[in-house]
Amino acid sequence: TPATAAAATSEMTVSYRLATEADREALRGALLRYFYPEEGVNTCYNGSPEVAPDDVDFYVNLITEGCTTLAIEDGTGQIVGFCAGGMLNGDEAQNMAQLAQTTETEKFADILRFLAFMAKQANIAERYGVSNIYYMYGVGVDHRYRQRSVASALMEQQFELARKLGAAVAYGDTTGVKSAGMCKKLGMEIVYSIAYNDYR
User: Fold this and answer.
1) Contact 177, 189 (CB under 8 A)
2) In the chain, is it the N or the C terminus that has fewer CB atoms within a 10 Å radius of its CB?
């Protein structure tokens, strides 16, 4: 019955760890299951709601950075949350713009150009007078585990990784009101915002 299912869900617990190469396909499945269907830029894209395969590959390949944190459902071993991050190498706006020239799909190229625009407007290095910058690419949580502080826990782990790597600032782009609210509760500040329709 629904009541039984709800009770079972409330008793589920999660453990947290860093992703390894062995998690690549499981992370790919998680991205497609509960991240991309609701990710703002993907769903608002004017060309197609379909997920760009090279966009997914980009997220999966971030595992090699060693900074993708996972929430694992105890008992099943299923990935029920993730947050991908890493230290930036040079000018992020320029890096994103250059990557946009080599993508497989036009959709991912457009997304990268948008992220390059955001990075240029935020101008984190100059704004804070720093060069060691940690970037959080995205966070996602399975629907069954929302409102249980899983995303906040994943973000806190990202902050700790940033500190260990010597970052002076950690930042990311949010594409939803709820994620922006969570970031503010975690002590982050909004340095730039724009409506996607205004950008287009």
Assistant:
1) no
2) N
